[in-house]
Amino acid sequence: MTSSKRRAQIVSSVRTKGAASVRELAESLKVSESTIRRDLDVLDRNGELVRTYGGAAPSPQQAAQAEISFAASAERDSEGKEAVARRAAELVEDDMVVVLDIGTSTRLIARHLRGRPVTVITANLAVFDELRDDPAVRLVLVGGVVRRNYLSLVGSLTESALRQVSADLVFLSCTGVRSNGHVVDDMEVETQIKRAMIEAADRVVLVASETKFPGTGSLRVCSVEQLDTLITTAGADPQTLELCRQAGGKVIIA
Q1: Number of helices (H) and strands (E), helices first, in the chain?
Q2: pTM above the 0.85 mark?
Q3: 67 lies in a domain?
């Protein structure tokens, strides 16, 4: 592989994931870490990405463009997401410890938790913005690499922090729920964070409006058998919902 082609793949990977480490890039491209470091130095000088400690992140221009995409995602199916978020917040009791996943739906849940005496743990910067000035909520922001394009924190630091967490509930988001019961996502860097969140909570609640059936994504996060509750809207695939019920999960139609 030529250096120009390798560097193009590096830029593509960083844009897709929001952040990438030298080790990850070296393993995926089957070259040495020193080669990747040299590539990152060149790409940083060219303004194609930003060199960070141990890896790289998108350039500010790329991040700004992606934030527009995040805003567009928030607008899609906004009515369904709002209905799901409202029902999700009703499951939260005072003094609970709640983990809110990365995504646009969980930002809406945070909005409905304002003024409540609860603890919210998140890697979602949009959730942080919703609750940062609320004295009633004990807000815990886990560390990690800032993924500006999706307003989130990701990486090994985030996963390590979540391993220290013991929560009552996690509200999980996804990009798709397959007809075979697989809950999927389309971002590798987010999938690992979601799995860590599942491990951290006593109960797992998936928030997924009808547009997520089947949705998109090829990376398996979990299966419906691991869900305690699924909150969706009236148009969700009935056979997939039945799989959840048969596995012992509760299905709530918002």
Answers
A1: 10, 15
A2: no
A3: no
Tokens of 24: 């990850």
Residue 240 vs residues 2, 178, 244: alpha-carbon distances, Å = 46, 7, 7
What's the domain count of the chain?
A: 2
b/e map of 90-121 (b: 16 or more CB within 10 Å)? ebbeeebbbbbbbbbbbbbbbbbbeebebbbb
The verdict on 52 and 84 lying in the same domain is no
Same domain, residue pair 103 and 33: no
Identify the CA nearest to 60 among candidates 16, 15, 104: 15
The tens place of each residue's pLDDT in the chain, 254 residues long, gives 788 889 988 988 887 666 788 998 999 899 999 999 999 999 888 878 888 888 888 776 555 555 544 555 545 557 889 999 999 999 999 999 999 999 889 999 999 999 999 999 999 999 999 999 999 999 999 998 887 778 889 888 899 999 999 999 999 999 999 999 999 998 877 888 999 999 999 999 999 999 999 988 888 999 999 999 999 999 999 999 999 999 999 999 99
41 and 105, same domain (yes or no)? no
215 and 241 both lie in a single domain: yes
Closest CA to 63 of 122, 14, 123, 130: 14
Which residues span the domain enclosing 190? Answer: 72-253
Q: Supply the DSSP symbol for 124.
A: B
**DSSP assignment string, 147-167:** EGGGTEEESHHHHHHHTT--E
SS3 231: strand
